[in-house]
Design a protein that fits this description.
With 323 residues, the protein is an alpha/beta fold. The chain contains 11 helices and 9 strands. Adenosine-5'-triphosphate binds next to helix 2 and strand 7.
């Protein structure tokens, strides 16, 4: 093993005892997919590992030569990869909503359900909801390690926030619905009618509450989940890394490693670029506290386009402090 591989292995497996999920976050184009592959290869030395890409740009397919989305492929010993695709999942989810609506609100038949489904599909938050489903599925999978390559930062931030936000809203809705049910009960009794308090809406709310609570707990559980933040040594990507760290703090999530990727050598860059790079690296070193380790990956002379080529980056991986 190269010293870069050893360093990454030490960081990625530090305090990891059971199954673990690593969520890789960063601005577009900084190297999230590349780092996800590297992390996957490191984990695969210890156990069955899945690299799952939720990035709508589907770059993992090209990178690893996967045949098509949604199909898990073995790409190495103990190493598997899958590219998720939103469109077919959106169709499936919206038809599930139609069934749920029919079940919990039979009176809705008077409205055109097709129109309701269309509205749901275009509703803000629908895409994030699909990602949450995938996240849930990944937590339930039986891989020892799962590395998640995420969509652009804004969407990822919303995905991570939603489980606890949903839990809060569902609790409010549950309270409201309970009031409605008890009012119905009181009216029925006053009229001398029989009233069965079993309510499909309450049951659905209970089911959703359980689901989002579990997700929020899994995300917050440091044994179960940690985050790798990737940035290039430039102001905007480092700024996004900072906002991600602030979000993780608010959500009680753990940053395991901050990766500064594509660090240019003195020969490769002009002095003005080197100046920006140095300032960005200085800033990055200050971020995230001690438990968030910082590493640098130097710029490779050729753009990696396959698993093997990506693995060459392990030779260019160093502790950021040693740069
Ligand atoms: N250290 C490096 N040296 C040279 N090329 C690199 C390095 N890291 C990544 N690349 C190349 O940079 C490009 C962007 O990397 P990658 O696709 O991993 O980024 P991304 O953050 O996943 O992008 P997107 O947001 O578009 O999904 C790729 O062509 C990749 O091969
Ligand atoms: Mg990508």
């Amino acid at each position: 093993m190269t010293s870069g591989a050893e360093l990454l292995s030490e960081i990625l497996l530090d305090n990891v005892k059971g199954r673990h999920t690593l969520i890789v976050i960063g601005k577009g184009g900084v190297g999230k997919t590349t780092f996800s592959i590297l992390a996957g290869a490191v984990y695969a030395r210890k156990g069955r590992t899945l690299v799952a890409s939720l990035d709508p740009a589907k770059h993992l397919i090209e990178y690893l030569g996967l045949e098509k989305p949604l199909k898990i492929r073995r790409i190495g010993e103990n190493l598997y990869a899958v590219q998720y695709d939103i469109a077919p999942l959106a169709k499936k989810l919206s038809s599930e909503y139609t069934i749920t609506l029919k079940q919990v609100m039979p009176g809705l038949t008077i409205v055109n359900l097709d129109e309701v489904v269309k509205a749901i599909r275009n509703a803000p938050g629908f895409e994030e909801e699909i990602f949450l489903r995938i996240l849930e599925e990944l937590y339930e999978s039986d891989y020892d390690y799962v590395v998640i390559d995420t969509p652009p930062t804004g969407i990822t931030h919303r995905i991570l926030t939603l489980p606890s936000l949903h839990t809060f809203w569902i609790e409010q809705l549950y309270e409201l619905r309970t009031k409605i049910i008890s009012l119905r009960y009181a009216i029925a009794r006053a009229l001398g009618r029989e009233y069965k308090p079993s309510d499909p809406v309450l049951r659905k709310l209970e089911e959703l509450h359980e689901k989002y609570k579990n997700l929020a707990e899994n995300l917050r559980n440091h044994d179960r989940t940690s985050v790798a933040i990737v940035a290039t040594p430039e102001p905007l990507p480092v700024y996004e890394a900072k906002t991600t760290l602030e979000l993780l703090d608010r959500l009680g999530m753990r940053c395991r490693v901050l990766v500064i990727n594509r660090i240019l050598s003195r020969e490769e860059a002009s002095s003005s670029i080197l100046e920006i790079q140095e300032k960005s690296i200085r800033e990055a070193k200050q971020l995230g506290g001690e438990s968030c380790r910082k590493i640098g990956i130097k710029q490779h002379s050729k753009t990696p386009r396959s698993l093997e080529e990506a693995l060459e980056l392990l030779n260019l991986t160093v502790e950021l402090d040693k740069l």
